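lol forgot to send this yesterday, sorry. struct tokens for the thing we talked abt
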């Protein structure tokens, strides 16, 4: 009888310890580590050299006076090509240049334009050197004989003055970019003289549009996210401050997938401690 109670008590104690260890075991998750090595993230703030529109136009005039080498832009040899598409009775032409030299796209820029030579199409995401080429040099889109859009690319990013027109060649829009950044981007600094950027918010038409960055004083990324039509979209990530190139996520907040999504409430998707151990994961 005593042996029976002893075995029963032993089994109960083992079960209790097993249950206790399961409750206090680290959360198991396929993305359990908060160390962020999977995404292309900058390790320091960008060097932003926004020139004024007037300075840019002066440079344009100077460059026009010089004899330009054929298909060479910003010192880079390019190839010129054309894409022709038809829809009903409307024919659209895209005339553009691309470089065969691979250059790693700026990780701060959301839209990287490249030529998918296999599918004969221009794309603005998913660039891989093995699949195509970065646009570089002048671009023009025509519908029939009328130019409806024109501008310049610099290693896959919009650069300089971009113009759009209606079918009667009336100017509809004019924008200015500096290697992919809208010229109206809003920047705050820890130290303006030393270009120590605190926050960088891309602005178009007075609305937040594009990738947002908040930096620690040492230049490492503190927060990343994306705006669309002035609203936060997608996954926003906060990072723990670090002393080296190791980036550890602190918190992920999920926002609406697209702007103006009704009845969507942002929620915390996951949290990590400073060592990168997962401490919370939503069940959504």
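and heres what i got for the seq, position by position
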């Amino acid at each position: 009888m005593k042996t029976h109670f002893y075995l029963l008590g032993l089994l109960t104690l083992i079960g209790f310890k097993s249950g206790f260890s399961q409750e206090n075991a680290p959360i198991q998750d396929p993305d359990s580590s908060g160390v962020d090595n999977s995404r292309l993230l900058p390790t320091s703030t960008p060097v932003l050299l926004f020139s004024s529109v007037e300075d840019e136009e002066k440079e344009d005039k100077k460059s026009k006076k010089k004899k330009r080498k054929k298909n060479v832009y910003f010192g880079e040899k390019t190839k010129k090509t054309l894409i022709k598409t038809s829809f009903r009775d409307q024919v659209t032409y895209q005339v553009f240049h691309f470089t065969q030299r691979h250059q790693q796209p700026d990780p701060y820029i959301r839209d990287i334009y490249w030529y998918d030579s296999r599918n004969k199409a221009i794309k603005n995401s998913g660039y891989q050197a093995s699949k195509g080429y970065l646009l570089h040099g002048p671009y023009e889109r025509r519908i029939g004989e009328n130019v409806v859009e024109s501008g310049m690319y610099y290693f896959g990013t919009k650069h300089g003055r971009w113009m759009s027109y209606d079918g009667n060649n009336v100017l509809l829009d004019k924008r200015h970019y500096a290697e992919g950044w809208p010229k109206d981007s809003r920047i705050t600094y820890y130290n303006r003289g030393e270009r120590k950027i605190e926050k960088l918010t891309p602005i178009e038409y007075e609305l937040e549009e594009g990738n947002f960055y908040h930096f620690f004083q040492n230049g490492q990324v503190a927060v990343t996210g994306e705006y669309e039509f002035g609203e936060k979209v997608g996954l926003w990530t906060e990072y723990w401050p670090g002393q080296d190139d190791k980036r550890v996520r602190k918190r992920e907040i999920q926002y609406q997938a697209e702007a103006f999504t009704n009845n969507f409430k942002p929620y915390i998707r996951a949290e990590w401690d400073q060592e990168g151990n997962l401490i919370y994961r939503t069940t959504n």
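The helical segments are 2-24, 53-65. anyway ping me if u want another try
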